[in-house]
UniProtKB/TrEMBL annotation:
Entries under PANTHER family matching the protein: ANKYRIN REPEAT-CONTAINING PROTEIN
InterPro entries: Ankyrin_rpt-contain_sf, SecEffector_AnkRepeat
Domain of life the protein comes from: Eukaryota
Phylogenetic classification of the source organism: Eukaryota, Sar, Stramenopiles, Oomycota, Peronosporomycetes
Name of the protein in question: Ankyrin repeat-containing domain
Length: 335
């Protein structure tokens, strides 16, 4: 049985049995006995003789150990693995698993007994001292934020700088209406409203791998994410901090509101001039939402017609398509 399977069964005793049965002197190898002689050779015997197989088994086991819901049991298995495996690599998945389950003590244990290693280099350079290399970063902070373990989120940011992905952290904060997290991302990561960037968002300072530009490239989805979560406070935060959808991506916002049926948010978008009523009417008509189209036609059509400059500049962005024009005509006939 593999070590990771034993960890799934939540049994340190089983780990001990596998380990004790892997001693190279328990039985000679087929090479020593000759063909056809002796008992069947088990790959378990590579556990102590082959460092690559040793590290492979450790990586699978440490991930399973970190996944356990019960911290005390998870910690017991992690400590057992550290007592028996040295100079191995704790993979990204184990760190993310501990973060997602709220196991801060395990993360602190990883940090305390961390040894140096070079990512991407030959792994033979890891010295077999007590402790293991830990791969921090990638989606560990994201896993903590998505599961509301913000104490772990802050701890990782402060104590384990590494390249990370924060796009989904931003998405989760918007959908949950977490203004504290949004303020943190704004302070440490996003570009300021004046166009200058926060130096804390650089990889050298904070260890965050994504750039401000990579996160801002997703800004067209910011308002849509807040709408999907039904978070008006997040929408107000975005507007106050200058992160509106922009003329090119207003349809994303409208579609999100239509799909979630949050029509009061559509009214808010019109009142705050994020989206024009005419565009909402067009998109609703194109999407076959006759109920929405009729409501907005009754409330806003006279105002739309009173605008001498409608459609607004640029013409290509605001002109109704043939399908939407036909749909609006259908709304007029049904009203």
């Amino acid at each position: 049985m593999a070590f990771c399977e034993a960890c799934k069964l939540n049994s340190v005793a089983l780990l001990e049995r596998i380990w004790n049965g892997s001693h190279p002197e328990t039985s000679p190898s087929p090479a020593d006995l000759g063909p056809g002689n002796g008992p069947k050779w088990s790959r378990r015997h590579y556990l102590r003789t082959d460092k690559h197989y040793n590290r492979f088994q450790f990586q699978g086991a440490i991930v399973e150990a970190a996944k356990h819901q019960e911290l005390e049991k998870a910690m017991e298995m992690v400590q057992w693995l550290y007592d028996h495996f040295h100079g191995c690599i704790v993979p990204f998945g184990a760190v993310s698993a501990a973060a997602s389950h709220g196991h801060l003590e395990i993360l602190k244990f990883f940090k305390k007994h961390e040894i140096s290693g070079k990512l991407g280099d030959d792994r033979d350079e890891i010295e077999a001292e007590w402790g293991n290399v830990v791969r921090w970063g990638r989606r560990d902070m994201e896993a903590a934020a998505e599961n509301n373990h913000f104490d772990i989120f802050w701890w990782l940011h402060k104590h384990a700088p590494a390249p990370r992905y924060l796009n989904n952290v931003m998405k989760s904060a918007l959908r949950d209406g977490n203004l504290l997290m949004l303020d943190w991302i704004q302070a440490h990561y996003l570009a300021r409203r004046d166009g200058s960037q926060n130096n804390v968002g650089s990889q050298d300072d904070a260890g965050i791998g994504d750039t401000a530009e990579s996160l801002l490239s997703e800004r067209r989805f910011f308002m849509a994410d807040a709408i999907i979560g039904g978070q008006l406070v997040a929408l107000e935060w975005l507007l106050d901090n200058g992160y509106d959808a922009g003329d090119n991506h207003c349809n994303w916002v409208i579609l999100a509101a239509l799909q979630t049926n949050l029509l009061d948010i559509l009214d808010w978008l019109i009142e705050t001039k994020v989206v024009e009523a005419g565009r909402i009417l067009n998109v609703a008509a194109e999407e076959g939402r006759l109920d929405v189209a009729k409501d907005f036609y009754a409330c806003y059509w006279h105002k739309i017609c009173a605008q001498h400059d409608y459609p607004l500049e640029p013409q290509e962005l605001w002109r109704p398509t043939r399908s939407s024009a036909m749909a609006v005509r259908h709304v007029q006939l049904c009203s």
